[in-house]
Amino acid sequence: MTLLSHRTTELVLSPPPGHPLLDLRPEISPLRDVIEQSILDWADEFDLLDGEQARRKLARTHLGELVARAYPRIEPDRVRAIAGWFTWAFVIDDCYDRPVGGHADAVTRLLHVLTPDGTEATTVRTRLDGALARVWSELARDRSPLWRMRFTQHMVQFVAAFKYEALNRGHRHTPSLVSYTQLRRASGGITPSLDLLEAATGQEVPALLHESEQLRTMFDRASDVVVWVNDIVSLPKELRNGETTNGVLVLAQARGLDPQSAVTAAYDLVARQMEEFAAAEQDLDLLVRGWLGLDRAELDALSSFVAGMKSWMRANLDWSNGCARYLVADGVHLATDPGLVAPLPGATAHREQP
Fold first, then answer.
1. How is residue 171 annotated by DSSP?
2. pLDDT for the residue numbered 330
3. Buried b (16+ CB within 10 A) or exposed e, 300-326
4. pLDDT number for residue 354
5. What is the CATH number of the domain that holds 114?
6. In angstroms, what CA-CA distances link 286 with 103, 176, 210, 290, 319?
7. Domain-embedded: residue 24
8. What is the pLDDT of residue 4?
C-alpha cells in the first residue's frame, strides 16, 4: 500500500505520548487579536487576496495565533511589520502552489525590494512586491547591516526553492532524504521566520555568536523540527493537492514504509533533531561562559533567541493541530492571480513613500 492510496483520515498525525515536543512549554502573546487584525489589514491595503471568500479563509487560518505563539515576547511596536511579513509569506506560498513560472525574475525582484539600507523601494512590479517593500522598510530600519544581509540570504533561498518544488510536482518526483532536507529547510520559510525572533523583540545576537557552530546547529535543528512537523500535519492536504515534496513521503519511499510507520518515523526523526538541539544548547552555554566581553544586553538577546527557537517548535505544533489551512479541504486559495509573482514585462506598481 502506498501513501497515495491510503485513506489519510485513518492516520494518527499527533506526536506520541512522551515525545520531546510535548515537553516544550507553550506560550502565547497577549497581542494575538491585534496581530490577527493587522494581518487582514495588510491583505486589504495591498489587495492581495482573491476576494471575500479568500479573506474568510485567511481569517480561519488564524495566522495571528501562529505569530503570537511563535513570538510570545513580541513588542507592540513590532506587530505591524511582523504581521506584514507573514501575510506576504502565506500569499506567495499559495501563489506558487500552481505553475506560475518566473522563478529567476522573482529572485531578482526580491533583491530589488530588500534594499541594503532598509529603505522602501519606490518602484515595484507587483502588489505583492509593494507589500514586501513596505514591510521591509518597517522591519529593517533599525536592524544592523549584518542582520539585513542574513535575512536577505534566507529570503532568497526561500523564493528560489519554489522552482525546485514546482519541478518535483511537475515530474511527480519525490526527492531523496538528503536533498529533501536541504530543500525543505529553505522552502518552508522557517529560516527568515527565525531571523524575525530578533526583530520581534528589538534585540540582536552578537554576530560571532550567531555564526558559532553551536548556535548554527540549534538554528538548523529548530528549522528542521518545524518543517518536518508541518509535513506531518499537512500530509492529507498535500496528498489531495498532488504534492510530492513532503518528508513523510520521502521516508516512506526511502525505507519502504507503510503510511502510519512513515509518520512514526518522521516523529522519531524530529525527536533526534531535538536531542541535537539540546546538546548544542549545552555546548553553547559552555562557550558563552568562557567568552569575555559580552554585556547584559547581548546575553539577554542570546537567551531570548534560544527561547524563541523553542517557542517556534512548540507553536508550530499547537497552531497546526487546529489550523483550517490543514484541516479543512475547501479548495479555496488565498490568491490565484499569477501577476502577483510573475508580472507581465514592463509592469509596474508604483508606490510613493509614506
1. T
2. 58
3. ebbebbbbbbbbbbbbbbbbbeebbbb
4. 41
5. 1.10.600.10
6. 43, 36, 15, 7, 33
7. no
8. 45
Q: Alpha-carbon Rg of the chain, whole angstroms?
A: 20
In angstroms, rounded to a whole number, what is the distance separating the alpha carbons of residues 50 and 334? 6
pLDDT at site 346: 62
Cα 238 off chain centre by: 17
Phi, psi of 246 (to 5 degrees): -140, 135
- Predicted local confidence at residue 114, as pLDDT: 98
Output the nine-digit C-alpha cell for 184. 525543505
As a whole number of angstroms, the longest Cα–Cα distance in the chain is 59
* 21 occurs within a structural domain: no
State how far the Cα of 105 lies from the Cα of 148, in Å rounded to an integer: 21
pLDDT of 344 reads: 63
User: What parts of the chain have a pLDDT lower than 50?
Assistant: 1-6, 352-354
Q: Is 258 a member of any domain? A: yes
Tell me whether residue 89 is in a domain. yes
338 backbone dihedrals φ, ψ, rounded to 5°: -65, -20
Measured distance CA(139)–CA(79) in Å, rounded: 10
* CB-based contact 35:64 (threshold 8 Å): yes
* Residue 275 neighbours by CB distance under 10 Å: 12
User: Which residues span the domain enclosing 169?
Assistant: 31-335
Number of structural domains the chain divides into: 1
The grid cell for 110 is 526580491
